[in-house]
Amino acid sequence: MSDSMRIAITGASGRMGQTLISLAAADDRFKLTGAIERAGHDWIGRDVGEAMGGAASGVIVTDDADAALSETDAVIDFTAPAATVQFADAAAKAGIVHVIGTTGMTEGDIGLLARFADRATIIRAGNMSLGVNLLVQLTKRVAASLDDDYDIEVIEAHHNKKVDAPSGTALMLGEAAAEGRGVSLKEVSDRGRDGITGARKRGDIGFTAIRGGDIIGEHDVMFAAAGERIILRHVASDRSVFARGALKAALWGKGRSPGEYDMLDVLGLAESD
Ligand SMILES: NC(=O)C1=CN([C@@H]2O[C@H](COP(=O)(O)OP(=O)(O)OC[C@H]3O[C@@H](n4cnc5c(N)ncnc54)[C@H](OP(=O)(O)O)[C@@H]3O)[C@@H](O)[C@H]2O)C=CC1
Ligand SMILES: O=C(O)C1=N[C@H](C(=O)O)C[C@H](O)C1
Prior knowledge:
By secondary structure, the protein is of the alpha/beta class.
């Protein structure tokens, strides 16, 4: 279709990269125009469809992000923090939509992204699924309704290849809980308990990370008090929930002013909506 949105995918060979390419190829609202991998990757120079074990797509995998992004409307980026900052620079030069799913970004990385938001439409979230973004809102609401008698714990489980912890989603949920309580997560976050830790500090928000097998992504927010527990849970059983959210974000971003947005904006769940 002539009015389909041109998209490029970074980290094309990755778990999310391949999921995105498969979904976009089957959706005529999109035209895949770029597949980007790191320099030296053995997919460089190959047709991305064939590299994935399927039919030729006509898109050759490249490590030249500047060239690939100059011929596209949006780039969808699920890679690694340092790579994402570089792609943000390229997206700003091209003045396009940059959908960022990469997690594990430091405050410094996020600060760098802000520098590109005057020229690129940046949509970033630690989880692009509708379910998790609803859970974020629910978490905030429950946290606002309960006092410190309810200890808040965020428990997440992921596959054994995941490199960052807590997950981006767990941090979103922790932020939502802190916001609901009217506190700063930085001041109450309790991570990595080990040894004689002492009793739990009232008001802390704790994080636990499980890593194993092929778990796609599971998150619980537990509110534990004397005599009862409330547990809000999301289970992803297919990566397509993240990829569909990212594709939706790309469409939402088309024609929108440069700036920084998140999935709550895309889904119309932001507080001001
Ligand atoms: N926001 C969300 O909804 C979701 C976020 N994620 C996040 O997305 C990220 C990727 O996850 P996943 O797909 O599972 O990870 P993978 O390791 O499977 O894929 C990452 C891909 O990025 C590539 N890459 C790394 N650096 C560069 C670079 N400089 N240039 C081009 N490509 C690069 C990797 O190549 P190589 O193998 O050569 O290193 C790899 O192909 C993680 O941060 C994860 O937490 C995942 C799912 C959902
Ligand atoms: O690395 C993953 O796989 C996932 N990462 C995201 C996160 O860090 O929260 C989202 C999802 O849970 C899968």
